[in-house]
Design goal:
By secondary structure, this protein is an alpha+beta fold. The chain has a single domain, classed as Immunoglobulin-like, CATH 2.60.40. The longest helix has 22 residues. It is elongated and about 75 Å long.
């Protein structure tokens, strides 16, 4: 009897490990990016800009996003009280945002259509939008990674993607 219980227990543990392995397979891939020149008038005026990034999910299931954050070169997360850059992440289900200023986003009604990242269920592709406001004109691109935290089949996971920042010097 003990032998059967041990075999049953080992089988259950193996099944749980296999299910976890199979359902944790999958990744987010950035398919399209946006940049704006540091010397663009809208940037120099310090106006907020909305920038879209196409992201594709390849894997089993439909993950639910819990958080999207930016990681600086020094490994710290960009915080809300950063003195150089203010960034808010959203989802654009319409899939139309490239690089636009806040006035246009308001006039076109895009702002009313943007969704919160938290609890957003990814079906296949999504357009991640960042509201970026440059607070310091001496800012140097110091964002290296995009961290996506999500749940898939009840398992909490995170993925870190290389990210080149929002501004170009060219």
């Amino acid at each position: 009897m003990k032998k059967w219980l041990m075999i049953l227990g080992a089988t259950l543990v193996l099944i749980v490990c296999i299910v976890n392995y199979v359902f944790s397979k999958g990744e987010f891939v950035i398919g399209s990016t946006s940049y704006i020149a540091m010397d663009a008038p809208v940037v120099e005026e310090g106006l907020p800009i909305y920038m879209g990034y196409g992201v594709h999910w390849s894997g089993f299931g439909n993950p639910t996003l819990t958080n999207v954050s930016l990681i600086k070169d020094d490994g710290t997360e960009l915080s809300e009280d950063d003195l150089q850059l203010s960034v808010t992440s959203m989802i654009d289900e319409m899939g139309v945002t490239g690089v636009i200023d806040e006035d246009f986003a308001i006039e076109a009604g895009y702002i009313n259509e943007y969704l919160l990242v938290e609890n957003y269920q990814v079906i296949d592709d999504l357009l991640l939008v960042f509201r970026v406001e440059l607070l310091d004109t001496n800012y140097e691109n110091n964002i290296s990674y995009l961290m996506i935290e999500y749940k898939n089949f009840g398992f909490r996971q995170q993925q870190t993607l290389e990210f080149e920042g929002f501004f170009s010097r060219d």
